[in-house]
Amino acid sequence: MSWQHRIAAALTERQQQQRFRQRSLLEQSRAGWLLHNGKRYRNFASNDYLGLSHDARLVQAWQQGAERYGVGAGASGHVTGYALPHAQLEAELADWLGYPCALLFNSGYAANQAAIGALAKAGDRILADKLSHASLLEAASLSPATLRRFAHNQPESLQRLLTPQEAGETLVVTEGVFSMDGDSAPLGALHQLTQQRGGWLLVDDAHGIGVQGEQGRGSCWQQGVRPELLIVTFGKAFGISGAALLCDNDTANYLLQFARHLIYSTAMPPAQAEALRAALHAVQQGDDLRQQLAANIARFRHGAAQLSLMLLPSSTAIQPLLVGEDSQALTLASRLRQRGCWVTAIRPPTVPPGTARLRLTLTASHTADDIDRLLEALYDAQSE
Questions:
Q1: pTM of this prediction?
Q2: pLDDT beyond 90 at 88
Q3: Which of 182, 200, 298, 376 keeps 20 to 30 A from 117, CA to CA?
Q4: Which residue is catalytic, options 48, 90, 129, 175?
């Protein structure tokens, strides 16, 4: 079979499965609304949970950073790409979250891949929640360590896997808030079990940071847990992009020697780091935004209780409506867009087969009227 035949066969199969992914070109996009083909939609697919992506403070910080440092870093941080804004942001993040060190990455995907890729060796084992993000599971499967998956959010399942081993290290991996189900990991129980076996816990808190805990410090802070490795990302509540890994001094120095994503990637632009510093300050001062988001979540869940669709248990900004079949999820999402609500159908392989869903995301930018219109659209769409 030629390359072209292989590609054509894979595309045909994906289309027949109703799982073909396509991008939508947007003229404008904000947390609460977007513009597509000249039509304005209420946006219920954004991860911009606090609506900071268009905050004037962040925009101004990026502009001023660009005027001073230019629009790119020019090199890896190991060459000439490490600037004052990077160092300041790392120090402020570490102080805020209670860690000795923070290391910046261009994305959460890169941070997860870098940490696991640099740390895991032959003879080690990685025990991951079975619903962990693809970046975590892929990094674990590509490493020389042995990967085993425990039942989602089930400490008892992890405990059964944490049998003593004569050699090698143990790394337990989970998300703080799960991106597709919107539920939270029992971090206290997971960390306690991990420590009992001398292992380390890695938490990817992409969807908890900025939203949960005091000053938005995230899931770990909220649950009183300090994992050995904490990944926070800036493409959600921070409204920008990039990520950071929080750890101790020795681990930071180790990753600076061996984490290939740090060594061989151009650093994030210093102007972006300046904008992220402004975003950090906005998050720290964002209690009103978090209260508005919480009110929107409560309003939606109260109204959605009357739907015939299964609303998964979630107190977070991620509110999944389980549909089941891929084609049904696509049809329902299309009906909602016809009613002015932009919603995304999530299908396998992103979620397990038979669990296609509408992944609704709520933000502080949504109004009570936005929530009510979404509920009305859902009632109408499900009854067609």
A1: 0.95
A2: yes
A3: 182
A4: 175
Q: HSE of 219 in the Cβ direction (CA atoms, 13 Å)?
A: 27
**What is the C-alpha R_g of the chain?**
21
Q: Which tokens belong to 87?
A: 């160092």
pLDDT confidence of 30, banded at 50, 70, 90? Answer: confident
Catalytic residue among 191, 207, 261, 366: 207
Encoded tokens for 70: 């230019």
168-200 pLDDT tens trace: 999 999 999 999 999 999 999 999 999 999 999
Task: Name the nearest CA neighbour of 149 among 348, 165, 138.
Answer: 138
Residue with tokens 């911009």: 48
**What's the DSSP call for residue 318?**
E
Q: Which of 29, 43, 46, 47 is catalytic?
A: 47
Which residue of the set 204, 228, 274, 326 is catalytic?
204
Please confirm, yes or no, whether 207 is among the known catalytic residues. Answer: yes
Q: Is the pLDDT of residue 383 over 90?
A: no
Active site residue 175: yes
281 catalytic? Reply is no
- Active-site entry in 53, 132, 143, 179: 179
Catalytic pick among 29, 90, 133, 183: 133
Q: Which long-range contacts (CB under 8 A, 24 or more apart) does 294-300 make?
A: 296/362, 296/363, 296/364, 296/366, 296/368, 296/371, 297/362, 299/368, 299/371, 299/372, 300/360, 300/362, 300/371, 300/374, 300/375
State yes or no: is 274 an active-site residue: no
Per annotation, catalytic residue among 236, 261, 314, 326: 236
Q: Which residues contact 83 (CB under 8 A, 6 or more apart)?
A: 69, 73, 267, 270, 273
**pLDDT higher than threshold 80 for residue 225:** yes
Q: Read off the pLDDT band of 285 (50, 70, 90).
A: very high
Instruction: Please state, as a whole number, how many other Cβ atoms lie within 10 Å of the Cβ of residue 64.
Output: 14
**Dihedral of the CA atoms 246, 249, 254, 259 (nearest 10)?**
20
Active site residue 302: no
Between CA 201 and CA 174 the distance in angstroms is 8
Q: 134 to each of 173, 209, 344, how far by Cα in Å? A: 12, 19, 18
